[in-house]
Amino acid sequence: MSTATYYDRHVERLFDVVERLARALKAAGIEYRLVGWFAVYLHVNARDETAARLTRDVDVAVQREDLERIGAVVEPAGFQLRHAGGVDLLIDDRSPKRSSAVHFVFIGEKVRPDHLIPVPDASPIETTEEGFNLAPVQDLVRMKLTNFRLKDQVHIQDMDAVGLITKDIEESLPSPLLERLQ
After folding, report:
1. In degrees rounded to 5, what are phi and psi of residue 154?
2. Which strand ranges, in their side-by-side order, compose the sheet holding 125-126?
């Protein structure tokens, strides 16, 4: 008999959250892209399953003008739109802890006023297996180098370790971000 571990249940919960969210947004024709550690996880996992690390929440980039509509279309999927601590997020009715929420950032806007660049606006790519919209690796690298917290540096290391950060990506970075990458 096999017993599910906490890790296995957490993976299942994260995928359930993203599946419900993606299904609701796609049905409503709302553009989104997964960003943050979950997006890094999916990109790294596609290259090397043993190198992928998980997170406790999900970050999603959307257009600010879609936020109110998002709140309405995801409610039947079990989410409640909230604004708490200066952050727009979705609370999952199935696991209503703020730490397990879906956090929004806005395309074309800086997450924090002191950030070097805004959230990139490149077209998302769709994962083959799950059908999720992901930010391209180049956008994730830019976002991680902009935030540059310790966990963002770990995300950069994870992507680089599996060969996702190519010379083309490096050459496309503005000099302050390239300095951080070095």
Report:
1. -65, -40
2. 79-84, 87-92, 102-106, 58-62, 33-35, 133-134, 125-126
The continuous run of DSSP H or E covering 92 comes out as: strand 87-92
Q: Which residue has the higher pLDDT, 98 or 151?
A: 151
Domain layout of the chain by residue ranges: 6-136
For the domain bounded by 6-136, which CATH number is listed?
3.30.460.40
Which residue has tokens 């083959």? 128
Q: b/e string for 153-169 if b means 16 or more Cβ within 10 A? A: eebbebbeebebbeeeb
pTM of the model: 0.91
Query: Which residues neighbour 15 within 8 Å (Cβ) at sequence distance 6 or greater?
Result: 130
Q: Residues with Cβ < 8 Å from 147, sequence gap 6 or more?
A: 111, 115
Whole-angstrom CA distances from 35 to 2, 41, 144 are 33, 10, 10
